[in-house]
Amino acid sequence: MTNDDQDVLSELSDLIEGLTTSGSRSLDEKLFKRVKSICKCSDENVRHLYRMIMTQLEKRHSEIRLSALQIINEIFLRSHAFRELLVDDFQKFLSLTIGVNSKKPLPEPNAVASILRSQALKAIEKWNQKYGPHYVKLALGYKYLKCVKKFNFDDSQSHTEVERLRAQDVENRRANHAEQKLNAVLTQMGDLIADIQSIIMEMGNCFRLVLPSPEEFYIYATNSRDPTLQLLDSDTPSTSSGITHKPVNNDKQSSLRYNKQGSLSHNEQHLLSHNELNDHGLISQSYQLAIPLSTSVEIIETADNTDVLNTLRELHKQIVDKYLPSTQKWLEVLTKHSGHHENLVQAIDLKNSLTELKYKFDKLTIISKNAQRNVDECAKNVDDETADGFIDVPEKEGLEHVPESRQHEYGIEPVKNMSLSTSTTIGEGLKLLTQ
Question: Is the pTM of this model over 0.70?
Fold first, then answer.
């Protein structure tokens, strides 16, 4: 092979590389025209072209394969040498362009793969009509696609029977998996519902023990109240002889007059309301009082409630770690199946109950016994330190020297006088002893 031939083959390789990797849905006319002119020169160039095309056809990219198929179709219609080479590898060609081998599907992108399959079927049908009687393998390949693989050559979006079976198999596996998950959920619900209901009841009882509601306190009925309480609440004035009644605010009461029907007029009612407010020191009737309410509840742990609080902690842990995730999983599965409405409603009710109990426990602030003991001790120490009202001052070591000029400010006598007075006192004492 001469250097010129080598240069031509190298140029042909570059042309095929450029045509198949351009990403275009159609071939560049100028480049492909040069390819055809090179192939006309010799069969060796055609064979080199075939090897390059098959190399590109094996790339795992449908756009490259689509461009290679377009080149194959054009050269197949023009070169007998090329037709013989392709027919000999016809099974491989079918696998790379149509995907007859289920173990080797067409590569992505899927949209381009569908176009690749459609154009390959059209090209094969056209080849068979024109060259089928002359190429046995071509005719056999066409019958194989039509009779065995059940291709519909009239449908541009045809799919192989293998692909249809594959898609059906995938759908069947998905349905079986969903059915298995549903059965597992129904079985798990049957096993856990009793436990969940028991935990809901037990935790509710624990909350009622540590946080009793007002409805649970004993309150006297209206008809069975203590006579003393009835007397205290009675509007009838007492007739005890030790109590005298004096009218209050006669001037205000005398200003009220009943109308003909025996009821107070609107102005009188307004005056009465205004006077009553003044009696209580209220000038205006429009007051706004904002009372901040805390959403959390503090409970001090004691020996009486420690067992109940420990039970609450354990039940809360079970709800968070086990039962709430289980109910969430049930809902995810049951919402995908319309034939189990009762189970879905039951799962929703259980999840709502568990969520409410978890919320109540999270809003509960439990002060442990050790923490409360520390708070009490700190408060006691503060009270002891501030009870006497005095401030402890550390004692000074030695004597504090006071200048002689300021001794009179502190009521201190001069040192000489103090010495004389001291000596006189000692002398008098000795005289008394000698007597």
Answer: no
